[in-house]
From TrEMBL:
Residues 1-30 form the signal peptide. The keyword Protease applies. This is M28 family peptidase. It comes from Streptomyces thermocoprophilus. Keywords: Hydrolase, Metal-binding, Protease, Signal, Zinc. Belongs to the peptidase M28 family. M28A subfamily. PANTHER family: METALLOPEPTIDASE M28 FAMILY MEMBER, PEPTIDASE M28 DOMAIN-CONTAINING PROTEIN. Residues 323-443 form the P/Homo B domain.
Length: 443
């Protein structure tokens, strides 16, 4: 391995800088003198050192140079890029998974990295495509997003930031062939895992040499997180319009997951009004878009720096739980309960305490049952006073696996406090399973 290893002194200098610059970040608390490691979960994000982001770009360019000049799907330079990013994340303590897929007869890869911890039911995902086109090393498209989220992930680990939500990063394969990797990932998520992803943030081309500052106009709350940050540093933004849905966020959006992201422009020409606003010239945002000249020379350090810091801000803000309303009071039983084949009903219970008065009209009942034929099952919620709410009837024509669902129950004529039961009975022979989890959420 001849990869240049990031110099240790640089890392330490970056951290010291982070502490000093914290006061300049919009939304920073008064306690800016505290080291990053001692800050509470809701603290302002540290500065992401752009020198470290640029070092990742240099590394990616070296990998392209050593492998035929590109990092495209199906080429050695792509696999080398995956291995490089994975090694950095493994060393930082992430749990990494390489997901393999096949496209046009060639093997592709997605790299997924989970930070251990955080609420597993609330996942914040951050992703960038790691593949280039075949014509060049793909440093702005999309080494820039890939390197910025890598350094953000490493900064999370380095500072010991413990998000209250679960944080997951991803580097996609074969985006340039039509968002193939991200679509494969989303399509292969079990429905229960899909519904746990509360936001997906996408970064594709964030260091364009003649940059604009574009924010995806999609989920309003996510859009606001970015807009507010740029307002705080005095940089005007515009809504991204150069091909809505032209990157991996489209895969998540079509699965109903809220999406957001940043972009500095591709082949489109900067208008004179945009030159007034952002500087630069009335030429393409990226004159090397999809060309061999998309190298480390094709990067605006200022744009890369601002966008990297904006990413860290969004990650800190969204994972600390301050931007979405509290999830309510949750009572859960995750002890497995076997359901006897064609036999007696069994139950899983939760004891609700600390809530006075009536249960809500929109009690959320989370049910996870692993079973080889869910049609066999009758599933009821039994209130503390014995009232039975049927959640799922016996349905012999439904031979699908498993029940993974959240039912909304009007329980307003029962009191909240007491023992609630999930009751499951298997009414047909042969197929079997178990209650995996039972959860009540009081709004
Ligand atoms: N992903 C596109 C590509 O690789 C680049 C692009 C064009 C883009 N328009 C966009 C990315 C808008 C994000 C948003 O060709
Ligand atoms: Zn591209
Ligand atoms: Ca059965």
């Amino acid at each position: 391995m001849t990869l240049p290893v990031r110099n240790r002194a640089l890392t330490v200098a970056g951290l010291a800088l982070a502490g000093l610059l914290a006061g300049a970040v919009p939304g920073a608390t008064a306690a800016t003198a505290e080291p990053a490691t001692a800050e509470p979960a809701a603290a302002a994000a540290p500065d992401i050192p752009v020198t470290a982001v640029k070092q990742h770009l240099t590394d990616l360019q070296s990998l392209a140079a050593a492998n035929g000049g590109n990092r495209a799907h199906g080429r050695a330079g792509f696999r080398a890029s995956i291995d490089f990013v994975k090694a950095e994340l493994d060393a930082a303590g992430y749990t990494t998974t390489v997901q393999q897929f096949t496209y046009s007869g060639t093997t592709g890869y997605n790299l997924v990295a989970d930070l251990p911890g955080g609420d597993p039911d609330q996942v914040i995902m951050v992703g960038s495509h790691l593949d280039s086109v075949t014509s060049g090393p793909g440093i702005n498209d999309n080494g820039s997003g890939s390197a910025a989220i890598l350094e953000t992930a490493l900064t999370v680990a380095r500072t010991g930031h413990q998000p209250s939500k679960h944080l997951r990063f991803a580097w996609w394969g074969a985006e340039e062939l039509g968002m193939v990797g991200s679509r494969y990932y989303v399509n292969n998520l079990p429905p229960s895992a899909r519904s746990k992803i509360k936001a997906y943030l996408n970064f594709d081309m964030i260091g364009s040499p003649n940059p604009g500052y574009f924010v995806y106009d999609d989920d309003p709350a996510l859009e606001k997180v970015f807009k507010d940050w740029f307002t705080g540093i005095g940089v005007p933004t515009e809504i991204e319009t150069e091909g809505d849905g032209r990157s991996d966020h489209a895969s998540f959006k079509s699965a109903g997951i809220p999406v957001g992201g940043l972009f500095t422009g591709a082949g489109r020409t900067k208008t004179s009004a945009q030159v007034q606003k952002w500087g630069g010239t009335a030429t393409a945002f990226d004159r090397c878009y999809h060309s061999s000249c998309d190298t480390t020379a094709n990067i605006s350090d200022t744009a890369l720096d601002r966008n990297s810091d904006a990413i860290a801000h969004a990650v800190w803000t969204l994972t600390s739980g301050t931007t979405t309303p509290p999830a309510g009071k949750v009572f859960q039983n995750t002890t497995d309960v076997p359901v006897p084949d064609n036999g007696a009903a069994v139950t899983s219970s939760v004891d609700v305490i600390g809530i006075t008065g009536a249960a809500p009209a929109d009690l959320a009942v989370g049910v996870d049952i692993v079973h080889t034929c869910r049609g066999d099952l009758v599933v009821d919620l039994v209130a503390p006073d014995g009232t039975v709410h049927n959640l799922k009837p016996y349905s012999p024509s439904d031979s699908a696996d498993d029940v993974h669902a959240t039912y909304t129950v009007d329980a307003s004529s029962q009191t909240a406090a007491g023992t609630w039961k999930l009751r499951v009975q298997d009414r047909a022979r042969y197929d079997t399973g178990y209650i995996d989890s039972f959860k009540l959420t009081f709004p």
